[in-house]
Design a protein that fits this description.
Largest sheet: 4 strands, antiparallel
Radius of gyration: 30 Å
Oligomer: single chain
Strand content: 5-15%
Helix content: 55-70%
Order of helices and strands: HHEHEHEEHEHHEHHHH
Strand order of the largest sheet: 3-4-2-5
Distance between the termini: 59 Å
Structural class: alpha+beta
């Protein structure tokens, strides 16, 4: 742990670092590949919408049901004539979902299930969801997501600038696409819990991105007054200085989510935990990746299209060519923080005057007079 803390301090001071911005084409290509895979999975398999979005009925059996999941699924499909989803709950009961049925059909299915499962009809709990209510929930979810995106872009454009707002928006779309695509590939059911998870991961993704952007904004206040660093160099320093913080917060957030996903959902068989935890787990990982490898390199690309940044880059490269300096990755002295280029270095600690070479020569030992 002390080595990790040491590494974080050295990254923050600019003594070591990895050139994320220089290798941005590699990260862009990897993100495009993952995004295409997610889109293909979404187009081929589609999303498995829950009954909350398409209407239907949910039947919950008592704890003493002796039938297996596959048997209960066959009974439900035979009684309803529709596809059924059966989940084994942690207390031994089963949750049977049948989409696209009305109230009258639900009563008949309940009676049939009681005969097939050999339990009393009163012991089977039935909940109905109308299709109009499901459409309303879906519309509200899309509206909430759209409003969130608009407010985020407006805030970032005001707090930082439009290039950072655009980069953050691209990173958010990247995270949502990957999360939804993995949902389609895995085949998990989309429920209101899934929507809650998606909105939550957007906040986590923006947190890491805003931390890097804030550092970048602070370090580039007077960037054009010096000829030592390009915008990409300082953007790379901002990523490295906040890298350990981003990794630590992401790991700490992923650990309890992994517990929900693999223990709560896998071992206990709780359906709602699966819906929320999968979206959180994938979204948190994708959000940490996009804030480091997508958002900040994209800002650097957009900023260096400006005429003043192009002129700065030419001056920096010309100076490096004259002095033989190889650039950001091999320079380990003080980092640029907006001070003038030729400023005198700060003195740390007490200053001691050097002893004179002739002091004390020719004097006798003993007490001075």
């Amino acid at each position: 742990m002390s080595k990790l803390g040491n590494l974080g301090a050295r990254l923050h001071r600019g003594e070591v670092g990895y050139d994320f911005v220089k290798n941005r084409k590699l990260w862009y290509g990897l993100s495009i590949l993952i995004t295409i895979t997610a889109i293909v999975g979404l187009a081929v398999r589609g999303l498995h919408m829950g009954i909350e979005f398409q209407g239907g009925a949910v039947f919950t059996t008592p704890k003493n049901t002796s039938a297996s999941v596959s048997q209960a699924e066959g009974y439900a499909e035979e009684a309803s004539g529709h596809d059924a989803i059966v989940q084994k709950l942690g207390d031994g009961s089963m949750r049977i979902q049948v989409a696209g049925i009305d109230t009258g059909a639900a009563d008949k299915i309940k009676d049939q299930l009681s005969d097939d499962l050999k339990v009393e009809a009163e012991q089977i709990n039935a909940e109905l969801v109308g299709p109009s209510w499901g459409d309303q929930i879906a519309n509200k979810a899309w509206q909430g997501l759209g409003i969130f995106m608009v407010l985020v872009v407006i805030y970032l454009a005001i707090a930082f600038e439009w290039r950072m707002a655009l980069a953050a928006f691209v990173a958010l779309i990247h995270d949502i696409t990957i999360t939804v695509g993995i949902y389609a590939l895995v085949g998990f059911e989309v429920t209101p819990g899934t929507v809650i998870g998606l909105l939550t991961i957007l906040g986590y993704s923006l947190y890491d991105t805003v931390v890097v952007f804030d550092s970048l904004k602070e370090q580039t206040k007077d960037i054009t007054k010096q000829t030592r660093w390009t915008y990409s160099d300082i953007a790379n320093r901002s990523i490295n200085s906040t890298l350990v913080r981003s990794v630590n917060t992401t790991v700490v957030a992923l650990l309890p989510v992994a517990g929900l996903l693999f223990i709560g959902g896998g071992v206990l068989g709780a359906g709602m935990l699966n819906d929320i935890s999968l979206s959180l787990f994938v979204g948190l990982a994708a959000g940490a990746y996009s804030s480091i490898f997508i958002a900040t390199p994209l800002v650097a690309d957009l900023k260096e299209r400006e005429p003043q940044m192009k002129a700065l880059k030419k001056r920096v490269l010309a100076k490096r060519a004259q002095s033989g300096d190889k650039g950001e990755t091999e320079v380990h002295d003080e980092s640029y923080a907006g001070e003038p280029e030729d400023a005198a270095p700060a003195v740390v600690g007490p200053r001691n005057q050097p002893a004179s070479r002739t002091r004390g020569r020719g004097r006798p030992s003993g007490k001075r007079r």
